[in-house]
Design brief:
Elements lengths: L28 H9 L17 H15 L15 H44 L1 H9 L4 H38 L7 H27 L3 H7 L1
């Protein structure tokens, strides 16, 4: 059957349910019923409500109208279904919240493991540099200065790991989006938050070794060697 094409829809890609939104043809209803379907049936009707209107009331009104048009007497079950997209969105949001919680738990464990690694590295550094710390304290260095020195080292160490993690995450995201043929979108704010979080982790987990180094006894530190 030959048809005249009067326009093209804008490309949308796949929906969240995996449906190809570009695999769609729009045509007059009567032409479809007479020339293609061969009947007057309508399988699905989409209804939109004005802004501010309670969709639950709209759904109730549609159900009442359909029962009346289909001559369904009281007490009998509906032979149709009315779905509110708000319910679908709520279900999707619930599933997304669960996945976000699981990913958050994994991230928390990863941060804890990384923080313990920072503590161990800096404790070893403090042990190996005991004489250096003792000399600095003996010649007049303040405890705050030694504390700040090791905190800066902890922050630099964690930021270096954060940069590697961000680069690895972006690389995997680019490969994944290219394989799935979906757009690659980057939120700079999220990257800044991840970068700042790395610094916070370095400060929190680096404080214990830095505090230990700052409170070394200079005499005992020099005798350590």
């Amino acid at each position: 059957m030959s048809c005249e094409v009067i326009g093209l829809l804008e490309a949308k890609g796949q929906s969240s349910f995996g449906t190809d939104l570009d695999d769609t043809v729009l045509m007059p209803l009567r032409a479809f019923q007479r020339r293609i379907a061969g009947n007057m049936d309508i399988a699905r009707v989409y209804v939109s409500a004005r802004n501010g209107v309670d969709t639950a009331k709209v759904q109730t009104g549609i159900e009442r109208l359909l029962r009346e048009r289909r001559n369904i007497t009281p007490g009998k079950e509906d032979d149709f279904s009315v779905r509110d997209m708000k319910q679908v969105v709520q279900v999707t949001a619930g599933a997304t919240a669960v996945l976000t919680g699981l990913l958050g738990a994994v991230a928390a464990v990863s941060l804890l493991v990384g923080g313990i690694g920072i503590i161990n590295i800096l404790l070893v550094s403090v042990t190996e540099r005991t004489r250096e710390i003792g000399i600095r304290l003996a010649i007049g260095a303040l405890e705050e200065q030694v504390l700040m020195q090791f905190l800066v080292e902890a922050v630099v160490l964690s930021l270096f790991g954060g940069i590697l993690g961000i680069a690895l995450g972006l690389g995997l995201a680019i490969v994944t989006t290219a394989a799935l043929n979906v757009p690659f979108l980057v939120d700079p704010f999220i990257i800044l938050v991840a970068f700042g979080f790395s610094a916070v982790v370095g400060i929190l987990f680096g404080y214990i070794p830095a505090h230990r180094a700052a409170h070394l006894d200079p005499i005992q530190a020099l005798r350590h060697e």
